[in-house]
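Title: Request for sanity check on tRNA guanosine(34) transglycosylase Tgt prediction

Description:
We are preparing a figure and want to confirm that the structure record we downloaded matches what your pipeline produces today. Could someone re-run it with the sequence below and paste the raw structure tokens into this thread? We only need the token string, no images.
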Amino acid sequence: MINKFKQNKKNNGRSLTINTKHGKITTPFFMPDATRGFIKTLSGTDLNNIGLGAMVVNAYHLYLQPGLEIIKIIGGIHKFMGWPGPLLADSGGFQIFSLIHSHPKMGKITDEGAEFKSIWGGSLQKMTPEKSMQIQFDLGVDMMVCLDDCPPNNFSKKELKIAVGRTIAWAKRCRVEYGKQIKARGITNNLPLLFGVIQGGPYLDLRKYCLNKLVKIGFDGYGFGGSPIDAKGNLQEAVLKSIARLIPENSLRFALGIGTPADICQCASFGWDMFDCVIPTREGRHGRLFQKISNPPAGRAGFQPACRTGRFPTRLPDGQVSKSFYSTININNSNFKNDFTPINPNSNLPELKSYSRAYLHHLFKLNEALGRRLAVLNNLEFYMNLMEDIRHIYKTKILKN
């Protein structure tokens, strides 16, 4: 249930507080992908130091390696990772179907589920909606995602209709299995939140149809599935905006895979509550650092004023993000060889204030792990500050489980 609240008059953005077994999270929030139970190069202490609220783990990957028996021995994925905060489990449908669509010999998709060869040894595996739910309950996560048929961008509308129908049918089966698992495990408090996934590609009519069917089944939240980027590489803004408005007010809105700062700001203004993406961690490992522009050009809104007034940054015609919002640097570039300014002088992390960009450039040139760690820390701190800024726009309300 969600307490009554008023949408922001300037846009549809909102802020809620979700209660979970492993703590509260205030929306909008961003979850980095700890796909296999970790964020590369970072420890739990690092994550706590940047104020991380929640992460995403992947049911498919953890099922294959290290396997559920190992995780169940210790009492669930939280204890295995040493992470005390909320976790969301992605069903793994995206990874499974990407594998099959890219390499048809690796498996097949039927109405029953998906059959595929494991990337660890090639053994034949099967994933059904029921099995996906069982895995996520074994992991012990706070938020779960239904298995869905996730098609590639190049699917025709006819093919997308089939995927939508299969997604709806699987969502019904996930909902039934969820109820069975709750009863069998004797869970009475802090029930995990369950998300249905909205498919339909770039076609608003298919997205609406899928959402309407999912709402009739009933879920705690609804995710925007498939690629949020169209065939031309642009964010599907019109579809994302329309679908967000159609999701019931008392349900969470999860924009899966949306992760550039500008896209997050834009989608938050549409009313999306949750985001996840590999962008900040992956880009960091390759030497690309996000940085806030502290002194924007005269007459142009800076980072904090832009978020606090709702004037979110927009994409320029060439697809680049407005320089008045933030910028990125590639620490591998030779011009940083003699740059002895701090990585981020305004950081709350001592390492980012004490180490220079010249030193970070040196670490990357030698492929030293410390360099990747510092860059990923920089990017995740940037994202946490971004989300905190966005949350200032909206009044916090309580979403009770």
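Thanks, this matches our download. Residues 284-389 form one domain.
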